Task: structure prediction
Amino acid sequence: MDRPLTRPLTRRGLLKGSALFVAGAAVSACSTGDPLAKGGAAPSGSAAQVTLTHWYHEYGEEGTQQAAMKYAADFTTANPDIAVKVSWIPGDYATKWTAAVLTPEGPDVYEVNDVSPNMVKAGQVTPLDDVLGAEKSDFNAKVLEPYTWGGHVYAVPMVVDPMLVFYRKSLFAEAGVSVPTSFAEFAAAAVKLTRGKQKGLFVGNDGIGPLNQMVPWSNGNLLIDDREIIYDDPKVIEALSAVKDLYDAKAMLQGYSTDWWDPGALINGAAAMQWVGMWAVPGLTEALGDDFDAFALPPFGPGGQAVVNMGGWVQVVNGKSRNLEAARKYVRWLWVQNTAAQTDWNLGYGFHIPPRNSAAAQAGKLNTGPAKTVMDAVAAHGVKQPALWTAEVRQPYTDAVTAIVKKGADPGKTLAAAAKRSQDILDQVPVL
Amino acid sequence: MTTTAAPARPGPGGRRAARRPAWRAFLLLTLPMVAGLFVFKYVAIGWGLLLSFNDARGTIALGDWNGLDNYRRLLGDPAFTRSLVTILLFTLFIVPVTFALALGLAVLVNRLRGGRALFRTTFFIPAAVSYVVGALVWKMSLFSGTPSGVANSLAYLLGYEESIGWVATVDPPLYWIVLVTVRLWLQTGFYMILFLAGIQQIPAQLYEAARVDGAESEARLFRHITWPMLRNTSVAVVLLLIINAFQAFDEFYNILASNLSGLGGADGRTPLIYLFQTALGEQNYGAGSAGAFVVTVLIVVFTLLQGRIAGFGRTAEEES
Amino acid sequence: MRGRRLGSYAAVIVFAVPFLLPFYLLVRNALMSRRELGSLDWHWWPETISFQGFADAFGNEAVPLAHALWNSTLISTISAPLSTLLASMAGYALARIPVAAAKPVFFFIIATMMVPGAATFIPTFVVVGSLGGVNTMWGLIAPGLFSAFAVLLFRGFYLRFPRELEDAGRVDGLGHLGLYARLALPNSGALFASLGILSFIEHWNAFLWPLVIGQDPEFWTVQVALSTNLNQQAVNLPALFAGALVAILPLVALFLIAQRWIVRGVLLSGIKG
Result:
């Protein structure tokens, strides 16, 4: 809580400095007198007895940071004894929060994609059943499920992000390409759309991106089934071989200045199709008018399934927070009760699906144009990543895919070895 | 401590008086350094070692002992062994290239009559730039995947119209060109300075004597005089280069990061990137500490070996 | 002879071009507009010089560059003199104060030289983290203050310190501390400056440790801020390069002004015994 930057000189800050430094006093004095300090993030709040720190990863859309700060300020207006300091963390967010929550000074409230049993065991999260309260039934059950351990829900969903393929309608028409209905058609379209400095498809700067999971999914294998690794499988081999062929066809954009989550490549004409989330819709509309639409990744072949990846961010409360009650109160106020803020957050900037069914049903902006295409695709093909597919478990798999797709490693052997490792790691995950 | 001071006690009063302040002064002057090294080196390594015998997921506290599990996991992980191979290859590549370039530039600059300072500064100034900035220029401008990147524009001029994703291409491993050249640019000047100083310490009479003996060509002078006289400098340069290469992190992290988690893929994962990923990415501080210990031991063993080999070489030379 | 000299000049110029190219790119890209830099075609120089990149770099609320520059300045200006002073103190004591503990203390200090700094970032993180140093100024600074190598250099320097000078000081009634503070320290200015400047450069350019320990944007150094810019969702290229240009300017200036000291420092630290 002790942030010399945002407060006048505090005794503790001073002691901390002088204990270690000859120049200790000078340090604290200097850092408080910082003329360059950015203002605004901190509450000017005076009466507050408690200051919560709230971490967001960087949302790319203009206005989101200001919105997050406004919600915090509104909360303090309603609850004068609790101030909220919003920290906006661009870049490598995952390693930043993991290091921060190890310490007593970690954020009280932060957002994540996954909640693993290890996080529960280490007390980095805390059950939020009473925070969800009676409204729990109004939340999308599919979305809550991966955050539920031992009967407790550890997170409140903030945004649901469908990810799928967006494309330029005009470029499709020019090249005589129609929306593909199988992976083979999809790959053929990518090749056909590659001309001059324009590439057919952009899925990520490494040339594989999320396809490493999405294509096997579309062939009917989710890679993991509860506590069992199932990706050492002919269906996955088949899918990855097709990804390799697509990669070798040189129809994919690589090493662009922004990565797949930013629609820049599609807007600038560097690629004709791009894997990106629904959040990009307002930006695309502004730049391209109605010259774009979306489709789910088509079923791999007969027996496959079309895929829309249902990602998103959820809010968790740090189990080691010194202000646990205040933090719960804040999360309930913001992400459960305050439907106006939720709607603003999900629809005011980039487009996301509000996690509450009642709010999603009323989201008029999602009922027209490409957003509607996406919503229909979600209803038909939405797939949520299994809960135990954590960073540690999937690392052997991602490495294996890189070796297979980019270097022509033998798919069967490579996947078998990786699956063994993933299984070992998975076996060590505590059962809750 | 009191026992070592004891012999002073029966001595003459004057000496006794001089001793006590000597002790106090010694303690005062060395204590900050000793305490700092104790906490940040000795305690850190000891604690890390203990933690490496713990199941420390999502925590840095001791308590959940699991024996050698972390080491087993680490050494059984092809990604870790591959990171060691990766750094070995990188070292094998970057060390001789930097060495040759730095030595070559030093010889060249030394031969100049006018403008020596200007060119020395030109080659040395990249040493002022951080690896982050170097990585940024290399990734986003020199070797960016867009057609307007410098490398791609050059390739275009040479008739190669397909724009190349330098950083993303692993087969052939074009990303190595990016990683090696950025480090070359950043560090060569530093070592050139070392060589330049070494060359300037060689007595001019040696060259004159050799010329009298009929050694006219520059190549022969270099081989018979410059090179042997630079032996100590060369040994130091090689040692520094290897140790620095082995700890590569900054440019790998910044150039190869390709997703929100900021971590590159299997290719170009150095041991430190692997450890960063294990500890901070996957929150496995036990395995991370085990890896840190293994890497540290490797470097220490190497340093000792190198010192021994160089030491042997030196005594052999002195004897001859 | 003349031809050979011309050849040398031709060769150094050929090498100098790639060494200067990145600086040119930094300047060119920083002065371009976003549209021009993002275009698919090559441009030698911005059509119209734009300072928007600098405005964007400093105006980005998500990555507080100005504050990061301030942090780096603070860290480097504290660390450089302080770490050099600590090393000189220890070096003097080890060289000049004859106590029995000098030898073991010396070995205690130089033994740490074998252990590479970067490789131990996890154990150091564990200790500093346990002491509550994550996201604090002291956590950023403290581990970088103790250089066994600098101690070694200062010890070597003070061993060669003229005994007559010290004797004269003793006659004037100076004790060991007085001798250090009044005589030894003021007379080690050259070494102090060389190592201090080198240490400043090292701290300004440090990346791994600040990345690991300073998670909160409030504690980002300029290198972490730049790296974050590089990994941002939507990269603003001119701003990225403008920020990088600002970040290297202090050190480039330092190199041009104080090159003599830097070269001395490089020589001292390059040739280890």
About this structure: Residues 1-45 of chain A have pLDDT under 50 and may be disordered. Residues 201 and 252 of chain A are 5 Å apart (CA to CA). Chain A touches chain C at residues 3-5, 16-17, 20-23, 27, 30-31, 34-38, 40, 58-60, 65, 87-92, 96-97, 99-100, 102-106, 197, 257-258, 261-262, 264, 268, 270 (CB under 8 Å). The radius of gyration of chain A is 23 Å.
